[in-house]
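Record format v2
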Amino acid sequence: MSPRRPSPDRAPNQMDVARAAGVSAQTVSRVLAGHPNVRPDTAHRVHAAIDSLGYRIHAAAASLASGRTRIIGMIVVSNDRYASAALGAGVETTAAANGYTVTTASVSDHASTSAFLEAFDRLERQGAEGVVLNVPVELDSPEMQLRTERTPSTRSQVASLQPDAPLVVDQHVIGRLAVEHLLDLGHRTVWHVGGDEYWIEGRHRREAWEQVLHERGIEPPPLIPGEWTPESGYRAGRTIAAIPDATAVFVSSDEMAFGLIRALHEAGRRVPEDVSVVSVDDIALAAYASPALTTVRQPFEEMGRAAAQRLISHIEGTDAGDEPDLHPELIIRSSTAAPLAR
Amino acid sequence: MSPRRPSPDRAPNQMDVARAAGVSAQTVSRVLAGHPNVRPDTAHRVHAAIDSLGYRIHAAAASLASGRTRIIGMIVVSNDRYASAALGAGVETTAAANGYTVTTASVSDHASTSAFLEAFDRLERQGAEGVVLNVPVELDSPEMQLRTERTPSTRSQVASLQPDAPLVVDQHVIGRLAVEHLLDLGHRTVWHVGGDEYWIEGRHRREAWEQVLHERGIEPPPLIPGEWTPESGYRAGRTIAAIPDATAVFVSSDEMAFGLIRALHEAGRRVPEDVSVVSVDDIALAAYASPALTTVRQPFEEMGRAAAQRLISHIEGTDAGDEPDLHPELIIRSSTAAPLAR
DNA sequence: TTGTAAGCGTTATCAG
DNA sequence: CTGATAACGCTTACAA
């Protein structure tokens, strides 16, 4: 007797379909793979058998035999931020369109490097053929290097891991657009409420802010720290409100801008008459803030699509084709204006 | 000669580890599974070999042999809404904590029933042992019935698919809390800006609104349609602003409330002095709207956790334990007030 | 155009 | 406590 349970009601497999269709299992496999050299009549009988038995291919068996999983992994931090979600949607869409499945590994915010390594390992174990790193941290540790060499990986937000590849979205450009807009409006200097410095994005935007000010011969005022949340923006707003000659602020996210503006209003400072505010992201609610936010838009969903496309092309060894031009865009609404004459 | 490529540099497998450790492959498997009956000394040698070879278990092979994948599928609509993202994070967290992996299948908003069936099939093909349906539509079609019988499934937002199981979050309660709050404040009637009726959530909240008004002998005013977006809220706001005696509005989401309030302000109607507004969700920005939103909070992440927990318990045949009490909560802020005396 | 045979890496069963 | 062996369901290579 078999050492296995006889399982009289197991799911049908290719052999069952083959028997029902009067062909070999191999022919069933060929039909499933859309192999050209199958007589239409045969293919038809096979499809009929598949439908009548309710057969479905067993992905694990297929991967084991073929060595391919068509799984893309995605490492995500703090899934509840708008940006991560939109990015993920883009990755999903492109993956599905190319016959790939996405498996997600979440990592908590401010997680240690080892948490990222573990997440990566989880995905590799599942057989991910590539990984989209939708993450904030620098990934230059030797251990991560090891993994990204073994499994092709792409950063979705800031830059590819391949040093020579073009940036996906240059966060320095974002900072530059914001700060130059305020300066061009006539403000004498620009204060900055930073994003969490744990995130590369936050660091790059701050660097751009410093750089632009230096270029114009302005010594940057002290950085006001934030951590992406509206609460932290509110706290920063109270700080700003206490600085009488602060007339222009570059905040590193729309969500923080909501908190910041609230604090400014409570302190009796009008936006944009007394203080101009530029933020980053252009989330759906940005246009409905009071006042509507001037912000630097990031095309999140397209960024996700581009990351997935690049990864899939790499996996399949095909040319990625033209990568879309993912430039950030300054959207001018009502939270910025020229400073009042004094 | 073998019909396969000889692959001199293939990834190490259990046999390689076994050789390196001087044991059989079976013992390696036992060590990996944490089987109790292994001599500590042997286990130690195996672990050493694993580390030195950089061995990782091959999930596809393991599933094929064991018949288990430890994969949970999740069907998601419009991943970029805050609620879906937070829910998904909860599912992820709980799955990971129990050694499960989450595979997502996205479906576009207003997708046809067949799109949902296809998504379900995709997940089954991947070997999902259960599916979290984070979706808006009713799932009583015979085809879906077929699938949910084969693969255990749970709705994360509204109710379990098992008719006798308790609701996860009762959307009628949400509508009731909102409408009764306004009525108790002294408003004579309450207008409703609905969510998209394609979503069960939207329908249930509307039903609750109608029911509460009827209970108090009030004939509900015409429903003002919305579709979750701030833009649709803005449009609804212009409608409301044109109705002089509308003093209280129940909007089906915070995002719509932002748009609604903006339209009201532009029309010169003050919130809450002229019009009180209650919404649903309590997203992070709700407290930073102008005015801060009175809203009915939904514990999204916990809802996701509960859904995953229930599913996993079902898969493993264990008792789900006490399900957390997932009640919505009315958060009173500044967008509601008693009507002005006229 | 179709069929046969081998093997993918793991786990379950049974024997020792 | 450990090992040998037989599946799991599919795809690749080759033969017919």
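The radius of gyration of chain A is 26 Å.
Chain A has three domains: 14-66, 71-169+300-325, 171-298.
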